[in-house]
Design brief:
CATH topology of the largest domain: Nucleotidyltransferase, domain 5
Oligomer: single chain
Helix content: 25-40%
Number of domains: 2
Shape: globular
Number of strands: 14
Strand content: 15-25%
Number of helices: 15
CATH superfamily of the largest domain: ATPase, nucleotide binding domain
Largest sheet: 8 strands, mixed
Length: 404
């Protein structure tokens, strides 16, 4: 079975092709036959396509920023040139898409139909930088591959069964009835990590209380009990919760009212400030990249240190809130760019939780662990660093659809 995965972001398009044989899934993610990425942010009106296959790496300048055209050019590298891995595109059996927002109506991966596309379009106001890109990818595949089966794997789905006390905002109830609620995001990653924890520990997922920390440019935590998300830090949009690379996370909403009344901010200005100019970048005045923040701290930059200290303070506070939802903890997970690579973030995040019996092994933590437990042998809480595999998670959902 050949499964193509499209993972569209606000300024990028990642794709890969998996080939699976037999009637069971492998125990760990296989290496894709082909991988590609389009970066739409390198230059106005252009795109940069990078492809890896057959031990060959290519860079191709795209002369347009038209996404469907770019996806079409990307697919050609599957059947042409040094990166050719297929005789023809019709050999692809199914295509899976990461879709950021599925609202409250989609609680699992769903075969894409006219109605599903309409729902994704209807939810664009709640994910204006992602859902349009997801739709463009779906329509580009329709144009190139016709009526091939396509599956939407929703980032919100894992959180769709959160208890109402976690999902409903304390505003007039009629707004909840109109769709204003906490949806949560990064669900594909959180679910993958929970399943991987159970696999690595050799225990039933339903028996574990887990906090997953997805720490990248966007950040979120999820409390997982009996295999289900019972609380998460992101909400109606991916802006709520933790301090992030360029996003503020949760702040006093009265600040926005004040800025509108006293400084004449409009909605677009507020949106830009909170999503693009806040977080690590806004506080440090330097960068949204944790590596740059750490470098600036080593050079004595006080604002970089403040940004880092705030990041850790808010991360620990939110871990505490997830802990309260669970009423205990078996496993603390770190994943995504910062979670997997910034040992100092993991170390500082674990400080203060010794009362749980949580004991970090600093030598293991500093040894670039991948899918490993970095807790001391006598720690009552496991501390796992996991390489999140969103693309593989999407592929497994496609496999289940094809096998059902």
């Amino acid at each position: 079975m050949k499964i193509l995965v499209l993972n569209a972001g606000s300024s990028s398009q990642k794709s890969c092709l998996y080939q699976l044989t037999g009637d069971t899934l492998p125990s760990k993610p296989p290496q894709p036959l082909w991988e590609a990425k389009i970066d739409w942010s390198v230059s106005a009106g252009l795109g940069l396509l990078e492809v890896e296959a057959n031990e060959t790496a290519l860079e191709i300048q795209l002369e347009s920023d038209d996404r469907p055209t770019g996806v079409s050019q990307m697919l050609k590298t599957l059947v042409e040139g040094k990166t050719k891995v297929l005789k023809e595109l019709s050999q692809i059996d199914i295509v899976g898409h990461r879709v950021v927002h599925g609202g409250a109506e989609y609680s699992q991966a769903t075969t894409i139909s006219k109605e599903v596309k309409e729902a994704i379009a209807r939810l664009i106001p709640l994910a204006p930088t992602h859902n349009p890109a997801n739709l463009e990818g779906i329509e580009a595949i329709e144009k190139v591959l016709g009526d091939i089966p396509q599956v939407a794997v929703f980032d919100t789905a894992f959180h769709s069964q959160m208890p109402l006390e976690a999902a409903v905002y304390p505003i007039p109830y009629e707004w909840f009835e109109k769709g204003i609620r906490r949806y949560g995001f990064h669900g594909i990653s959180h679910k993958y990590c929970a399943d991987r924890v159970a696999q690595l520990l050799g225990k039933p997922l339903e028996s574990l209380k887990i906090i997953t920390c997805h720490l990248g440019n966007g950040c979120s935590l999820t409390a997982i009990s009996e295999g289900k998300s019972i609380n998460t830090t992101m909400g109606f949009t991916p802006l709520e919760g933790l301090m992030m690379g360029t996003r503020s996370g949760s702040i006093d909403p009265a600040i926005l009212i004040y800025l509108m009344r006293e400084h004449n901010f409009n909605a677009d200005q507020l949106d830009k400030m909170l999503n693009k100019a806040s977080g690590l970048k806004g506080v440090s005045g330097l960068s949204s990249d944790m590596r740059s923040i750490k470098e600036a701290i080593s050079e004595g930059n006080d604002r970089a240190k403040l940004a880092f200290d705030m990041y850790i303070h808010r991360l620990k506070a939110c871990i505490g809130s997830m802990l309260a939802s669970l009423g205990g903890l078996d496993v603390l997970v770190f994943t995504a760019g910062i979670g997997e690579n910034a040992a100092i973030v993991r170390e500082k995040a674990c400080e203060g939780f010794e009362f749980l019996g949580l004991k970090l092994d600093k030598d293991k933590n500093n040894s670039s662990p991948v899918d490993e437990d970095i807790a001391m042998s006598d720690s009552k809480v496991k501390i796992l660093v996991l390489h999140t595999e969103e693309d593989w998670a999407i592929a497994t959902e496609c496999w289940h659809v094809m096998m059902s």
